[in-house]
Design goal:
Elements (H helix, E strand, L loop, with lengths): L2 H4 L7 H5 L1 H10 L4 E3 L4 E4 L2 H8 L4 E2 L8 H10 L6 H6 L9 H12 L4 H5 L2 H14 L5 E3 H5 L3 H10 L6 H12 L8 H27 L5 H10 L5 H14 L1 H17 L1 H9 L4 H11 L5 E6 L3 E3 L2 E3 L4 E5 H4 L34 H18 L3 E3 L19 E4 L1
Parallel strand pairs: 2-8
Antiparallel strand pairs: 1-2, 3-5, 4-10, 5-8, 6-7, 9-10
Helix pairs in contact: 9-11, 9-20, 11-12, 11-16, 12-13, 12-15, 13-15, 18-20
Bound molecules: protoporphyrin IX containing FE.
């Protein structure tokens, strides 16, 4: 069976957002990786292939230093990533989009703030943020879970870790969305304009915040980064780009997985009941939410060397699309992969990637989920879905419900 015999790949279609998993299944079952012509890349959907590429040091995020200036400019133009000065400086270049020594240096500066122990120390703050948001909803039994609640959490939590005051959380969410939207496969000029403006405003905001902390340091990540910059570990653009990435990478992803995790629980009332009776099952249930509906299902790598995948040679310079969303449902790795099982163990999902770029904020993401679901199950004895059909966002790079109306009491 070849891929073209089975399905047409149109990740922007409504049918794909309704059910990407049957498309992923056809891809995994095809004999070869799928060539995605629109973006000149080979899509990998089997767990083994995705893991092999994500953990291979010869597979890089950036082609800088590998391709000629002309080729780089041409690739930028084809991807519509050109003529956007702020975006090119601090979004297209980042910890996420660097490799080797630069990546190691940038990651090392902030890694200590994101270890399990460092993140666990923020639990009381996360709890307070969640309690305050839910207190504001007191008396309401019908809510739109995403807009009324989930969307506020990440800006407040990551903002607290970094040191961005709570009153800016709403604006940071907007900038993050506008920038992140331009990572998806439909890069229109209109979205480009919006992404560039958002990057510039976000940049100016972070420069001001940094200046404030230089005058009056606090016990937060940005103040620590200022010390590291003085020791020569960052350029100004690297500094801003790292702050921006930390604020953006965990924004939409957290909102989306809260939405899809809640939706999945509501589709499985028996599971919801088990979690009420046995809250100690929550950590494995949360891991399963990440496996089942990973909010960032697609990333890329470029091959620095000729590479063999499934017996086929790919030349140096080949771009691979890593379909984390497809790998997470691979029956060769997970028994009964389309079933949501809260006690799945082991659960080596790739929702946070693998290898050198493994999600820096994965402990933050899990802590948010744990505090939120524990609190919701404690506060509300009855939670149910209040809409017939839940519509998921369109696109390849993100996965999450557009809205989730629920009833709770
Ligand atoms: C909520 C769910 C989240 C998911 C599913 C997620 C997923 C991912 C994935 C898959 C990658 C690897 C990209 C690749 O393979 O190329 C990544 C990288 C990253 N994530 Fe997350 N993320 C989440 C939350 C967060 C949070 C809360 C933060 C910040 C506090 C964060 C910060 C980062 C950073 C800085 C990187 C780049 C790491 C590097 O390149 O070394 N993420 N994330």
């Amino acid at each position: 069976m070849t891929y073209s015999d089975t399905v047409k790949f149109d990740p922007l279609s409504r049918s794909f957002s309704e059910d990407p998993y049957s498309v992923y299944k056809s891809m995994r079952e095809a004999d070869d990786p799928i060539y995605y012509e629109d973006h000149d890349m080979w899509l990998l959907s089997r767990y083994q292939d995705v893991a092999a590429v994500a953990t291979n040091p010869n597979m890089v995020r950036s082609l800088e230093g590998i391709e000629s200036k002309e080729d780089a400019a041409e690739r930028q133009r084809r991807a519509n990533w050109h003529d956007m000065p702020y975006h090119e400086r601090v979004v297209q270049f980042s910890l996420l989009d660097s490799d080797g020594d630069i990546h190691r240096r940038l990651r090392r500066q902030v890694f200590g703030e994101f270890t399990t122990a460092a993140v666990a120390a923020h639990e009381p703050i996360v709890q307070r943020i969640v309690d305050d948001l839910l207190d504001d909803l007191e008396g309401r039994s019908d809510v739109e879970f995403i807009e009324d609640f989930a969307a506020h959490v990440p800006g407040l939590v990551i903002g607290h870790i970094l040191g961005a005051p709570a009153e800016h959380a709403r604006q940071m969410r907007l900038w993050s969305e506008q920038v992140v939207r331009f990572f998806d496969v439909d890069r229109t000029d209109e979205k480009k304009q919006i992404a560039e403006t958002a990057t510039r405003e976000f940049y100016d905001f972070l420069v001001d915040l940094k200046a404030e902390r230089q005058k009056l340091p606090q016990n937060d990540l940005i103040s620590k980064m200022i010390t590291d910059e003085a020791a020569g570990h960052y350029s100004q653009d690297e500094f801003i780009s790292t702050c921006m990435l930390i604020l953006m990478a965990g924004h939409g992803s957290t909102i989306d997985v809260l939405g899809s995790g809640m939706h999945t629980l509501l589709k499985h009332p028996d599971v919801l009941k088990t979690l009420r009776d046995r809250p100690e099952a929550l950590p494995t249930a949360i891991q399963e939410m990440f496996r089942y509906e990973p909010p960032l299902p697609f990333f890329h790598r470029h091959a620095m060397e000729q590479t063999e995948i499934r017996g086929r040679d790919f030349p140096k310079g080949t771009t691979f699309g890593l379909l984390y969303g497809a790998a997470n449902r691979d029956p060769a790795q997970f028994d009964d992969p389309d079933t949501f099982r809260i006690d799945r163990s082991p659960n080596r999902h790739v929702a946070f990637g693998m290898g050198a770029h493994l999600c820096l904020g994965n402990n933050v993401a899990r802590l948010n989920m744990k505090v939120i679901f524990e609190t919701l199950l404690r506060r509300y004895s009855d939670i149910s879905l209040a809409q017939d059909k839940v519509v998921y966002k369109r696109g390849l790079s993100v996965r999450g419900p557009e809205a989730l109306n629920i009833h709770w009491s």
